[in-house]
């Protein structure tokens, strides 16, 4: 197993968690990658003390809580009761080198489709897409439509799509580097409110193809996030009122 590290912030009442992870490598290791995600999701725990943003503190930024290990028993289950910390968050973003590859396609075929920018066909060969569709990993999470070339594997310091690995192993290009998220929506048309306190939408999802310092191309995603917030002073005023009963 590889691993992950998380950060949690509070924006008014809602909680947002960001998890950077590196899952198991190699084409055939799909089940190991799925298990890596499951382990990270179930066992990542945060300290109970964290600062929540309010109007007066917004200018100072946000604070994060350190990742803390959660003990487990011999079966691998968490020993404390209740749902995982990540399940309690209003928004969760997973990003990093997930290592899912393209299946049922040769190196030369993949290179040809990339050069033609035939990403629709290549997406049908994406292991992560297939595993998510089957409900085996990243359950309840979503990803923007991929419109950029596969981000792995490249020769370092060689620009452009000609930089794909041409060594002895000739690793098949793949979208190893991904960003997925979930918010509090129960349906695509849910609106932000007290019953749905955080709604996110994707503004941009792209790969930084000009970066040549790594054999991966980094990806970035820009979100617009609507946060439902009840004014605490109004809430206190309402709680202090006397209501007649008949």
Polypeptide structure, described:
The chain has 246 residues and is of the alpha/beta class. It is built from 6 helices and 9 strands; from the N terminus they run ββαβββαβαααβββα. Helices cover 19% and strands 22% of the residues.
Name of the CATH homologous superfamily: Endonuclease/exonuclease/phosphatase
Q: Give the CATH topology.
A: Deoxyribonuclease I, Chain A
Q: What's the SSE pattern?
A: EEHEEEHEHHHEEEH
Structural class, from helix and strand content? alpha/beta
What percentage of amino acids are in beta strands?
A: 15-25%
CATH architecture: 4-Layer Sandwich
Distinct helical segment count: 6
Which spans have pLDDT < 50 for at least 5 consecutive residues? 51-80, 238-246
In whole angstroms, the N-to-C terminal distance is 63 Å
Biggest sheet architecture: 5 strands, mixed
Give the number of domains. Answer: 1
Total E-strand runs: 9
Mean pLDDT: 84
Q: Into which percent range does the helicity of residues fall?
A: 10-25%
Rg, please?
A: 21 Å
